């Protein structure tokens, strides 16, 4: 893998695009970001024409792989008739009905574009319903780049004033955050027991800590949050932008049997197109008819909703999740076994088709992971296997046993050189 054209493209991009990439963390790829010209199935081709097995999958949306013909056919048909129309159209309710049919607690939804936007909509609904202003989130958990939630990003940020996740953020909004620790039932009980005094409107939780190590909830954690929210008049919000429709058709509610008041979905819902939604109780959602503002020129655009409708139709087949689980368990077994050949190599956490590299004795986080991952990342790229700087691994129905076996063989070759 020469990577020369990508290096030149990155240098050119830096002269016109801030940081040289469309989203900041893409710049963390060593030796430099990969630039691609084509993507099909489980593979991408770079500007030099070299092919890579892709475990980035657009940072999560592509559960069906690149260019699934069922999604592209639906989008192409709509695109010839309309793009953005500024009026109602049938796909608004057809796509909504498909999503609500899949989600156990889905009574109504609101369309949005990105996960960051939809999280803000969900929190606005919670504040309006409760008359309170604060949000309880969990340390390390990422809920978008907005000032109001991009804070408390370190593991030891629990139960103390939230600190901003980056420069340029407004410090004035951080008083609205209360930061707990994921899977710490006792701390959640104490903080939510003071919900009235602390003015807590919502609990915002990623049920599997998708951006903070892919940590599954302990057996009682989510159910305890549900009980505490009911007891203290707090709205329970699941951030399922990454996990939703990836770990199960009905998301975390289906997988773990706990129904939140609202869920935020994105990524996998639209098969590679830009769309998000806030899904849940009708009384909360319907506040948009009585004073809660929800707007956006590109909300519910026909092309994206054609992709949602087609994707949800495919995901209604249980065999899709059997296939996802099969290839993901193969990856964990085969590639994980290579890592397991030495206690120094690390391991994987896995929830369904979402995995996270965990270094030996190290920690994971939104911006990357320690240990050998930087070496693995570049070494595998040079052998034709594309992974994410953060150590997350996304599988799709387009990945095959042959892809996984080749990945394990390449990793074994690489680790033998260390």
Automatic annotation (TrEMBL):
Family annotation (PROSITE patterns): AA_TRANSFER_CLASS_3 (PS00600)
InterPro entries reported for this sequence: Aminotrans_3, Aminotrans_3_PPA_site, PyrdxlP-dep_Trfase, PyrdxlP-dep_Trfase_major, PyrdxlP-dep_Trfase_small
Keyword Transferase (UniProt): yes
Keyword Transmembrane: no
Name of the protein in its database record: Aspartate aminotransferase family protein
Names of the cofactor(s): pyridoxal 5'-phosphate
SUPFAM superfamilies xref list: PLP-dependent transferases
Single annotated GO MF: transaminase activity
Gene3D superfamilies reported in the protein's UniProt record: Aspartate Aminotransferase, domain 1, Type I PLP-dependent aspartate aminotransferase-like (Major domain)
Organism: Streptomyces omiyaensis
